[in-house]
UniProtKB/TrEMBL annotation:
A molecular-function term among this protein's GO annotations: 2-dehydropantoate 2-reductase activity
Enzyme Commission designation: 1.1.1.169
Signal sequence region: none
Enzyme class: oxidoreductase
Function: Catalyzes the NADPH-dependent reduction of ketopantoate into pantoic acid.
Transmembrane segments: none
Protein name: 2-dehydropantoate 2-reductase
Organism: Vibrio spartinae
Length: 296
């Protein structure tokens, strides 16, 4: 396939390399203006064409791996170049971006993806795969339902990949994990494993109860005990990890809070559900961001 990766950061470069290794014609669209993008991964260096209009026009699949808050601006100038049949796949944490893509590209098949692979780019041209994970993909519009074959394509390049018949269920489950782990580890600047300490248990229970109430109102199947066990397992399995929001706050970068807790708050408001614990974390992170913004 002709594949274009928009946003060749950590996750985007990992997929670009795995897909190129598997024999696909892969190009990228990054923010650097050079005509080629090179990335060292393990023993090898991989080269991709970068920012070429023909790569956009001829793409069978466009994989979008910018951060959630970067999605709309990444498309502003590109949407007109994208063929109406090109499959669009969004792969990022958080929810709430697909609505703008549906409006900008009303005829394109849209597929959403969520992955638990870990990737780290210590330098602009160096990549590490820091954690083996799995990826779920699923349709986000009518045309997207015809793209189930993509599961085999991606599975061959970088397993495990599963087709999810109701991808929003998987996205909400990931959102629940992120609503708990990301803001708490960012505010306390601690690794994920610290959230297993007794002092965090009461707040975590309240956060999960609030998220569960919103999920139920959204008709997403949820059992609080099972969700709690799942989140505990993620905390244990990733105990040494620093969450992306932890790292963003440490480096004073804009976080994905608007598309994680912020998305939860907007859905809670629509259903008239009070979510004070999540609201407090949201405002705490936004206040931190505003302090840095005011320094720029
Ligand atoms: N890294 C992980 O282990 C991991 C795991 C699971 C999920 N995720 C999720 O995956 C998403 C991507 O994360 P990441 O860690 O890969 O972030 P990242 O390294 O910051 O990658 C985002 C890339 O998009 C580029 N970009 C931003 N705006 C752009 C634009 N308008 N046009 C083209 N490129 C643009 C950025 O360029 P600049 O660097 O120049 O800004 C950067 O290279 C996030 O939602 C994250 O939460 C990450």
């Amino acid at each position: 396939m002709n594949i274009l990766v928009i946003g060749p950061g950590a996750i985007g470069s990992l997929w670009a390399i795995k897909l190129q290794q598997d024999g696909h014609q892969v190009a990228v669209f990054g923010r650097q203006t050079e005509s080629h993008y090179q990335c060292q991964f393990g023993e090898h260096s991989y080269t991709f064409s970068n920012r070429q209009i023909n790569d956009i026009k001829h793409a069978d699949l466009i994989l979008v791996t910018v951060k959630a808050w970067q999605v709309t601006s990444a498309f502003d100038s590109l949407a007109r170049q994208i063929d109406p049949d090109t499959i669009m796949m969004l792969m990022h944490n958080g929810m709430g971006t697909v609505e703008s893509i549906r409006t900008l590209l009303p005829t394109n098949p849209i597929v959403l993806a969520t992955t638990t692979h870990g990737a780290f780019k210590p330098a602009p041209t160096q990549l590490f795969h820091t954690g083996q994970g799995e990826t779920f993909i699923g349709a986000a519009n009518e045309q997207g339902h015809r793209c189930q074959f993509l599961c085999d394509v991606l599975q061959h390049a970088f397993p495990e990949v599963h087709w999810h018949p109701q991808i929003e269920h998987a996205l909400w489950r990931k959102l629940a994990v992120n609503c708990v782990i990301n803001p708490l580890t960012a505010i306390h600047q601690c690794p994920n494993g610290n959230l297993a300490f007794p002092r965090y248990q009461a707040v975590i229970s309240r956060l999960i109860a609030e998220v569960g109430a919103v999920m139920a109102a959204e008709n997403i199947p949820v059992h609080l005990e099972e969700l709690t066990t799942h989140i505990d397992c993620v905390i244990t399995a990733t105990s040494e990890n620093k969450s992306s929001m932890h790292q963003d706050v440490y480096h004073r970068r804009k976080t994905e809070i608007d598309f994680i807790t912020g998305y939860l708050l907007s859905r809670a408001k629509k259903h008239g559900i009070a979510v004070p614990e999540n609201e407090a974390l949201y405002h705490h992170i936004r206040t931190l961001e505003q302090q840095w913004e005011s320094l720029i």
